[in-house]
## 1
Amino acid sequence: MNGRTCFVRRQDMMGEWSFWANVGRLEAKGDRLRILLLGESVARGYLYDPLFNMAGALEEVLQSQLGEDNVEIIDLARTNLGYDLKELANSALLLEPDAAIIFAGNNWRAGYYYPHTYERAALDAQIRREGVPGLKRGCEERLAEQVRSGVKEIASLYQARGVPLVWMVPEFNLGDWREPVTLAPHLSPGGNQEWLTLWDGAHAALRDRDFETAARLAKQMVQLDGGTTAAGLYILAECSQQLGDLVAGRRYLELARDTTIWDCSRNISPRPYTVTQEVLREEAVRCRNEVVDVPEVFKEYLDGGIPDRRLFLDYCHLTSEGIQVAVAAAASRVLRLLGGADIHWRELVDKSVAPTREVEAEASVLAAVHNAHWGQSFEVVHHYCLKAVKLSPSVAQIMMRFLDLQTRHAPLMMCRSAEEIAMSGSELVQHYILHHNRQQLDKTLLDAVVGALEGIGINAGGQLNQLRREEHSVALRDTNLLDYYYVSSARQAQAETWLIPQLQKFNEAKNYYTAYLRESRFFFVGDANRPVRLRLTCRLPESESDEGTISVEVNGDRLGDAVISRQWSTWEIEVAGDEIRDGLNEVVIRWPTPAFPGDKLLESLIDRITDKSLPEFFCPFGEIYAFSAADAHNGSDVMQQSSPAQH
């Protein structure tokens, strides 16, 4: 235009526009210093963007030091950006930057689908020698290679053009984020049973506040599982913190974060693994780039404390305070690079405008939703709900609409509450709830919403209970307890794997629920004093045992036992009306402890990995093909077997 080059959005990429800054046109470089910001959703300002984000805050800080007309930030952060960072960084040089900042590393994964025979042989040998810990070590080595190669390639591109480059090392919410419970993967013969015994003993010691015993037992758990599950490490972290050793507590939490690097069998939240952080630091310095070590900056900012909800909204996305601190550290480094004053980052923290209370309140609502949908505790979810209503009581209307939206039987975009959200003028809630939400029973989340609203005088509990009965009661229609809407509320992430769309292509052979814990939880909506009939088709997994006994509880009352085998069998369980509550009712199935297979299944892992199928890393306790709840006007507390169902 007018003989000058400009850049505009591609129409054929419209489906990805929401991942980027809401900017349709980038002009050719002018007289101002041009700084690029590249990165993932953390750099995007996830849950605040577009009303507040890192690029805007960075621009304000730099303009406060260099003058409003002397510097501009080009926001190239993209949600869900992965290793395609290299392509983006290369293309971004067309914008003629004076410097660039890259804040990435949370989406870098260590894929271990090896196409070459020699790599397959190496992986096979590693698993045979060390088991799953060997697979974990192999993933760390592969990720280190990928990070090192990526940093070197990008650094060489920018060095060739004479563009200074700043890498920001990402940090993780060590203080609050907790992985959903998993037991140990397949261990050597006898190892899994010993691990379970240690697990029970460590938790008993924790309840008695005997931290020394709990820590001793947890260390034995970690020795057995080789750091492949977070359970023992979380116990060690808690014991260390209770005993006042924050350094050890932090280290155990970092190790717990790193335990997921090998596990492709479930949905894992993005995170910067220790190997990512260490290689990024080392390689960036080796390439003579600048490094902003966000973990060290946060540690200094918190006076040595462990990073938590003060700086993080969830696993890795930053609060406005976290954004301001990270931006101050980046701005300090850029100012030094561009020949400006050498200003310590602490002096720059308050140079950007913080979001309004209304924006903070809406971001807190979204953080509550996001944390709940990633299986976090009631305490964490409730914290964000309370924070939201304290910041701006007007968000109560948004929370009530969300409560209605999640509880309706109709699809999301056919609900009046969705239309009201769309018309509300709340840009953040519209963007994240209407585009990225999935309807589910949401027991933890909606209980937290109800608690927060009741704190400001709104009786949401009664409305929620009534709405659930009107929309989902078994008195109206049979309920499939394995439907994602209901099963997701149990917060048993491994059992939901077969329902996750992005994993189904690797797991086409499995179309049933698999229990990886000693108990499985389910929910249905009932009417008090109205009997319910549960119908369960289940079996034991392949093991050395031909039969085993399960027990079934409803709302904490044991209804009876059933003997099941490795063949599918269907049982009908009549639950008397006086056992049923108005609203949510909980069913618990307790499984027998399996005969753990030990090393036998490790031999099949390499075949499934290289075939790009989901390996069975964990020993299943039971399997369910069908589970439903239906109205039963006349029934008694009996459990009976019907003819076996073969599938």
## 2
Amino acid sequence: MLRSICRFSRFGSGALIFLAITTLAHIAVAAESSSTKEARNESEKQLREDVKKLAADDWEGRGLATQGINKAADFLAAEFKRLGYNTELFDGTPFQKFSVTVSNKLGKPERNVLTFEPTEKTNADGKSLEKKTQTNMPLLLGRGFTPLSIGGSGKVDLPIAFVGYGISSKDDKYDDYAGIDVKGKAVIILRHEPQQKNPHSPFDGDKDSMHAPLVRKVSNAYQHGAAAVLFVTDEVEIRGKVAAQRKRWQDTLEKAKTEFDALAKVPKDDLEALDEERLRLLRVIEQLKTQGADLGKEFDPLLPFERGEGSDARRMPVVHVRRIMVDQLFKASGHPSLSKLETEIDEDLKPRSFEIKGWRLQGEVHVERIEAEVKNVVAVMEGSGPLADETIVIGAHYDHLGRGEEGTLLAGSKEIHNGADDNASGTAVLLDVARRLAGKKLPRRIVLIAFTGEERGLLGSGHYIHNALFPLSKTVAMLNMDMVGRLKNDELIVYGTGTAKEFDALVTKINGRDPFHFTIKREPGGFGPSDHASFYAAKIPVFHFFTGLHNDYHRPSDDIDKLNIEGMRRIGEFVTEFALDIANEPKPPEYAQVGREMFGRGGSEKKGARPYFGSIPDLGSRDEGYALQGVAKDGPADKGGLQAGDIIIGLAENKIGNLDDFDSALRKFKGGDTVEITVKRAGEEKKFKVTLDPPKG
């Protein structure tokens, strides 16, 4: 290169100096460009390695009930420590531990014993039956009844009532609970709905309506004060199964006849063809045997223990009972059969509910809750100077759905849900940001948190909020990354642009820098289906970075081959710029509350035909009732006086035990209705009037 400079010495010293300066500048730019490219390549290589580990089959989808999530936690802890962050925070570890219920299983057989027990010799009219002898009716586990995981445990000695299909619907002018008091009683409820085969039925014709799911029926029973639920399968369901089984058997019988005819037509000297046809016929005969045996089986099978789902398991027992046992009870107490009652309800759509006098449900139901210790992984880089006691949290959740845990959108799947985008991508980018910030001396403290339990309802971030390592009053911002692995056409969604007065302008400023220039969709609200919502409910400004939903969401197909690693690297650079700008700004961001927000996926404010209430659930709460993490500004709950920390235990005349009860009760009203809300606040019951808004969306 020096040889090239000397070649132009004839142009004079000035020209030579100019040329030298220009050439050296080009050399510096080339070196910088080469260095930048190398750094980006190294960043992408590291991101790819990190996400490959996190989304590996060996780590079992990072489900709360797997060993894989512990492998992920150990990996993150080691990386934070290697980068120089302080990880000796909780008894010398980075692990903020807490317990969650990860699954339920059927309890001990000796603790699952139920009996229909006569208490006096009376019939349905209360008249004496002294000349008749009544005996108890044991409901044998696995033969007469089975507990359902949706319910709870406990000893029972309860009066009994039949409440038809267990439906209360103002819109359809049908209420199985009208005129009957079921408080403190065990209620017998038919599955499904009246007029199931009638396309003109008010209950969504011949399709299941919102009243059909077990969780809805249990919620309605709880709201009316029931102490236990006994489900019984309706006759329409049983007849349909019998018909389907008989048709399968008849179809196979026709197939067998066809194979017999085919065998008869095979030439006797064609031994190979004879053997092939013989084998085909034998396979069909085996099918006939199996299906014939099925025809002789009980066509009222007990539901599996795992049947039923909801936002939370009940404390009251919920079981499934065979029809024959209920029919025996009805006959002994002088009531019509289930079949007759179903027919009558179908004919006129009028409830046929009644108390079963002279009988009680006695015994015990035992459902075992399987607890697991889970942990947030936390690392700290202390600030320096007068603002060192102020904190910026940067986080991403590292848990996912394991082998098809609660939340999977592939029903019944036991495949590993690797969750490459959700949220191995955000976790890998969290590590990328940690590398970019490592060793810097910033005015404010940086706290990195890999949250657990997000998929179960923001459990990890909720736990941190209730057990913060540093004062929340001095936590000036939270930056969250969830599903940032599918950047397409440079379109990036940024939530929280309205949660601080400075944030919208900050997005514009940082995105205007090279090399960003994303096409940004701004969402001003701070509530949403990820961990930033827990912080915003605590009045902390938030940003949440997200590249959008896709068809692989919460399915086993969310794998690493579909990730945009370059996009993840750019998002890591982007988030780092936000952290640096907020850390170096003399004044902290000024919190702002955004009005009329919806919580979104996993929360209470779902779109639909129910009125808008404006509440944000605290899904990590274990208190009985519907706990509030916050309320939307200027929403009905806010205007009515409700606030974060309240636990709703009543809505009008409805008892509220969890989120499902709240959702179910709210659907009984419409926009414009004013309802009385009963809450527990700091241990005291208080009542508020809330005027509901029309449904959103």
## 3
Amino acid sequence: MIRRLCGLLAVLGVAALPSVALSAPASAQSTPPAAASVSLVSMTPRTPDARHPEQPVRIVAVITNNTNTTYSDVQFGIERATTISQQSILDQAIASPVPASQMDYSVPNPLDLHQRLLPHASVTVNYLTSVADLCLCFHGVYPYSLVASAVSDPNLGLVEIGRTQLLLPSFPNLPQPVRVAWIWPLLDAPHRSIDSDVFTDESLAGEISPGGRLDRALQVPELVSGQVPLTLVVDPDLLDSLAVMASKDGYRVRKGSGTVPGTGGSLAAAWLARFKAVAAKNDVELTSFADPDVNALVRAGLTYSTALDRQVQARIAPYLPSGLSPGQFDWPAGEAVSTQALDALVSTGTSTVLLSDAALPGGNTISPRPDAISPLPSASGSATALVLDSNLEATFKRAIKVGSGGPNDGQTLIAQLAIRAEQAPDRTHFVVLAPDRYADVAPNKVASIMTAVRQTGWSAPISVPDALAGVTPVNRGALNTAAEQPAGEVRPAQLEQVRAIGADVASMNDALRDNDAAAQLLAGFNLGLQRAESSAWRADPAGGERVVEQLQSRIDGITGAVHLVTPAVGTYSLSSSNSPIVVTVSNQLPKPVTVRVVVTPTDSGIGFSAPPLTDETIAARSIQTIRIPTHTARLGKFQVIARLETPDGRQLGTPVPLSLRATAIGTVTKIITAVAVAVLILALLRRLIKRTRRGPKAGPARVAHA
């Protein structure tokens, strides 16, 4: 009888569907908070099977009194509205739960708790019903309400004090499955700068300890092992950090101006052993080292490498499937990418990119949503995009987060998956889901959702490699580059400093002749610079600045160890036009270094020049004088500047001003002077000859006196 009544109600509901508006009235938006909150704790099974009316369904909920009123005779019941069969109507119901006025069916046998609900107190409900009583009669998603009623005024009797919406899919005939691929990140910010065995802090040990963020993240693949295949996205730098921590030599942690021994070695070894076990059973994808912010790097004109340092490879290889290399799968920060960054990714070998549906919006208005795989052409070649659905993502992230969400969000996620099968039951669908990049989750919540999705009967898990091989891509159209937000990237000023440090490192490598000496003195800079470019610094700029500061301090110490010595005597005398200048170079490095000295006048018109010098090699830990030939074409005092440079022209240390006094004139000057003297002499001789030729000058006549 009950089943016939359910069927009749469902038929009436379906007939009325076009005219039913599932949004709450405008006035409901200003309704004061409910007297009580109703929260779903669990439902078993998570997806009742409409094909088995006798299947029992157990619901555990909590009713919390939000007022100062004491309620008696608390009752718990379930109501249901018309089935939903369209994506847009489901979206509307999620945004604005279906109001009580549109509930057209009450599940039989509400539960009388026979107890009071004190002010700001809670009671737990354990309610048993069945598929038949729930009346999962037709295809679609049913909006149910878990309703709490109670008595506060005997004259008014039983009144509703609170409700919450519960969305349940119903498939009396199974559709083609919705195939779901799960991306699971094991990522963290870098914890080292330049030295492989020196950590900036001890926080990584806390994250992998029991209850730490990375411990909980790793519990997820452990809990669903053998049931749900995952794609584990891992940063090689994280694995390398843990391998160093777990090594027999251990690691050290910065403290003040020194370091202290690290204490997380055994924790790292245990975490790596657990990771190795789950990596053997799942798809594993490596980010490029330190998970670089590709968008920011390309925008700044910097490059990045997908190749792994040989020492890093050796340390992490024991924990990874054989033949694995980084860079083939990329998860850009913010799930968006610029055109230039996409070109860079594809040119370095990336074949799959995880993006949001804001980055590839074509098809977002289609119902049901298109499959989550799209061709991704670029100027460097073609890749494939895995496309995250923003509505699904919002629900999933809320459902699994520590301290928020809960089973009801998990039920909503299941309903959002089911609506695809409801709208197009004759074909399969493909969806990809991922948490936040640095997932901070309750592992039991995640595992419960993943296994519930697997057990629906109308959905099926699929690995990312199988999806890429077997799901036909749907063209989502052009890349929306506006989805990539430059303001959220790693800061340009930080990357500019990284560029300058990189240039200093390259110059010193040249000065050290790119040999074993360079390898020893500059060891760690390549990896350190990559850590400074990590996507993690989007959310933690101060952390990125600390890494850059440590790199800057180290390279300044190396370049500053090779410098010109300021002369004790302030003025050099040049006794000839070609007198050399003698400068002193100090090399405090434990390796020989090749440099050159450049001397230039402060005034280009003072008649001084010094030809370019050939490279000079300064022995390790030594002070060496270098004679610099000069040419002077003037007398007097003037100033020049001496600079020490690497062979590629990068300045080392501070330039030294030198005062010079030219006390002897050059050959040209001598010739000019001699010619001038000769001309003067000739002029005097000519004047004398003229005077001689005129003879003596006649004097005045004398008068004779008698």
## 4
Amino acid sequence: MRLAATIMMMGGLCAMGYGSEGLEARVADHMGSPTLFINGEPETPLIFLGEPNLAPGMPFTSQATMARDAGVRILSFSLHMPWPQPGEEPDFTPIDEQLENALSVVPDALVIPRFTVAAPHWWLDANPGNEMVFSDSDEYDGDIRWSSVASETWRQESLEHLERFVTYVEEKWGDHILGYHPCNLTTAEWFYKRSWEPVHSGFEEPMREGFARWAQQEYGSIEAVREAWDQPDVTWDSVRVPTAAEREEAHRGMFRDPATERFVIDFTQYQQIAVVEPMEEMAEAIKRVTNDSKLVVYFYGYYFELMNIPKSGAASGHMMLDRLLQSPHVDVITSPMSYLDRGAGGISAFMMPVDSIREAGKLYVLEDDTRTHHTQPDTPFAAITATGNLDETHWEHRRSFARIFPRRMGTWYMDLISEGWLDEQGIWDEIDRMRQQYDAALDEPSPFEPEVAVVVDERSAAYLAADRRLSSPLLSYFRSEWYRMGTDFRMHYLTDVLEGRVELPKVSLFLGCWRIDDDERDTLHEALDGKTAVWFYGSGFQSKDLAGAERMSKLTGFAFDEIEAGPAEIRFTDGYLLTEGIEGETYASADLLLEPRWAVRSEPNVQTLATFADDESVAVAARNMADWRSIYVGTTGCPAQFIRNILWEADVHVYVDSDDVVSSDGVFLSVSASSAGEKTILLPPETAIERLDADEPVTVRGNHAIETFRHGET
């Protein structure tokens, strides 16, 4: 019997493709959680990722064996997709050797191979003009050469090689293949090469041709393009990509002006499409070749992480996950856990708003590449904080598991460079314990319904200036605060709210939601009925075609005055419950100049919660609207304590009044200590508590659990 795998959206929806075997459509206890099914049975999605090299001294054999004994039988590793020169036959020998090696260790393994679809260098030489061109290519002396994702020639040929590769693997190894993971671009993760350098990409002819085709589809007529771009002489044949100088301009300080910079905004949007289009085509091809029986897995959508690249997130090509999630051929989205704030006392942050993936019926899989106490200190990978001992490794694995378990998501445990990061029985004993916990919950309801949401907008990324002055502190580093708000939360793209896919909870934090059209504003106000909105710097400043502070006023309910560009640093006032515990404290960098900078106009119904530190104009304020509560934070974030104060005011259950990391669905609770010492955990009314990892009782006083933590303990 050929193995078949599918993602089933539990809750009555039909499953997507299960070959000839069929799959029961039913209402299940997972209550809307996308669940991995293998041959009709739900499976806990825990995976071991390591390269099956059986050479002496390589640790794959011991790790894979311990993984299998711990109940983890799904493996992922790299296979080489042959791309032979014309007239040559593809060599599948390395593929056979890798799979034979893996199955010799774990005979019943199920494999998700990852493989690159990038063209080899000989192909780039034979097909000049089809590789990526950068703003500094004339003087660049590095060795990065890569096929352009916009190249129609590359797209066609890569599809041919992919289909031949999948056909071969299916025919010979299909009973062990769970799915396919096509990879490309930077570190195989589908964001543009050299994104971590201060350069622009996309100057090759295929990108220009693709942009012209997109403009024709988007606008319909050349006259409409001429008007939108203010290029009266442009023709379809003369459409060009913006110069580096044009991309560096931003007419409204940290923002682009939609009225005058539509040309650059449009191209920036196309850069995302150019990445997603071949991903969609490859996913469709895999489904076709496998008769819809195997998974398609992709790295993509690293919204929070890539907002920290030098030219800001839109330069990455990763700002169109919402479109990729609409593809019926894509099953699994994956990413590493964030490299921000790792190590003991860290936060195990997601790189993206993973709950949008869950809402779309896809399975999210976290790549847990924790640098364990077995990571060699003299390797570059040890620069990402490694654990110091087995206890710390347990704590970090628990902290990451606590992120995915309430959401019923997956994870793979990764020995990134075959160094033996997981080569210890104690590590797999702990993973086995967590796996058993997940197994036991597969047929239980998933009660994950946090009272807090964080909402971001990937569309707005194209409307930012091409630098990270704003995006880095607000959308990347600010996670170190809101991940410590004392309770759990869900993360969504704004489109989920605008299109009615999710209902906003008691409190919603709106980050990076700069582009909001008039009809979208009305939709948001309706969604906020009876709830609290926390708007961060510049919310609603832009629409598709316009920009202005009056737009912010209509969205947030505050009147704004544009004041002189100045420091982002704010100072909290006293006299309000919302500033309790942070009175007189400052937040944000005095070295970052906000441009534009807006002050909230003082009015009788407005509470002044913080002022700009340099001129005491109002930076943070609160007011009651007719049907909802509005809070505006006019800088690049706020302390975790301020968020907790907002949550208390809104009657949200906060588990800890400290900057520790909480994950909970109301049944399962995890606390990870950002600092050592005694912690007081507020329990919901009529709640009992017991440990999952030991037999000792928890000390409870009234409705408070008292626990003493070591630094980083989970």
